[in-house]
Amino acid sequence: MEKIWLVTQESNCDGEILFNVTPCSCKETAKQVFEQVIDTILKESCHFGGYTKEEREEMFEVEDEGGGRFFITDPCDDYYEEILMYEKDIQY
Predict the structure, then answer these.
(1) Is-contact 84 69, C-beta < 8 A?
(2) Average pLDDT in the chain
(3) N or C: which end of the chain has fewer CB within 10 A?
(4) 49 HSE (CA, 13 A, CB side)
C-alpha cells in the first residue's frame, strides 16, 4: 500500500477555526514543511509572532513534543495553533 505524509494546521483566530492540509511524498519533505509552518507562526503571526522564546513561554502555553506535534495557545484569549505531521495510507 502506498503512503504519504500529511502536515495539518488548525488555527483558532479569535474564534474563527481555519484548517489547512499539506500532502508530502516523504517524511523528509513533511518535516521541512512542519518546521516552516512553525517558523512562520513564531515569526509572522499577528498574535504569536515576534516574541522571544522566554516571552512566549511566559505569555502562552506551548507544547512542542518534537517529531510531529506543535501546539501553542493563549490562555487569556481565543487563539491557538496546532500543527501535526503524520503518515497516512493512500486509499484508491
Answers:
(1) yes
(2) 95
(3) C
(4) 9
Do β-strands 16-24 and 3-13 pair in parallel, antiparallel, or remain unpaired? Answer: antiparallel
For 70, residues 6+ apart whose C-beta sits below 8 A from its C-beta are 34, 38, 63, 64, 81, 82, 83
pLDDT on residue 92? 83
Q: Check residue 66 and give its pLDDT.
A: 76
Tens digit of each residue's pLDDT (9 = 90 or more) over 72-88: 999 999 999 999 999 99
Grid cell at residue 64: 512542542
Q: List 5's β-bridge partners, or say none.
A: 24, 87
Contacts of 29 (CB under 8 A, 6+ apart): 5
Residues in the chain predicted with pLDDT less than 70, given as ranges, are: none
DSSP class of 92? -
Name 84's bridge partners: 8, 69
